[in-house]
Amino acid sequence: VAAGVVLTGGSSRIEGVVELAEEIFHMPVRLGVPQNVDGLVDVVRNPIYATGVGLLLFGHRHRDARAGERPVGGVRGVWERMRRWFQRTL
């Protein structure tokens, strides 16, 4: 990751964690804070919510592209694809 590491979640708020991560990864580290959020900005502009807000924004931006799609094979199909991915990767 040429640009550095982005920490999110509640643990990212632990005092000294950014400095520790910089020592471990030998690259720049910063806290990830949700961007482009309207309303409740004072609440959600916090690293604790970065992943959740990011997933919501991603889903919102891509909902039209996936409209009408249904998962092939349902839940069983998802587990099967995950199993195959792990077998190939590991």
Question: Explain this structure to me?
Answer:
This protein has 90 residues and is mainly alpha-helical. The chain has one domain. The chain is built from four helices and two strands. The chain has helices spanning 17-25, 41-44, 50-62, 74-89, and strands at 5-7, 29-31. It has a two-stranded parallel ribbon. α1 links the parallel β1 (5-7) and β2 (29-31). The two termini are 22 Å apart.
Q: What is the makeup of the main sheet?
A: 2 strands, parallel
Task: Report how far the terminal alpha carbons are from each other.
Answer: 22 Å
Estimate percent helicity: 40-55%
How many domains would you count in the coordinates?
A: 1
Uncertain regions spanning at least 5 consecutive residues: none
Shape: flat
Instruction: Count all strands and give the number.
Output: 2
Mean residue pLDDT: 83
Number of helices: 4
Instruction: Name the beta content range.
Output: 5-15%
Rg, nearest Å: 18 Å
With strands numbered from the N-terminus, the spatial order across the biggest sheet is 1-2
**What class, by secondary structure content?**
mainly alpha
List the helices and strands in order: EHEHHH
Question: What descriptive keywords fit this protein?
Answer:
mainly alpha; two-stranded parallel sheet; 2 strands; 7% strand
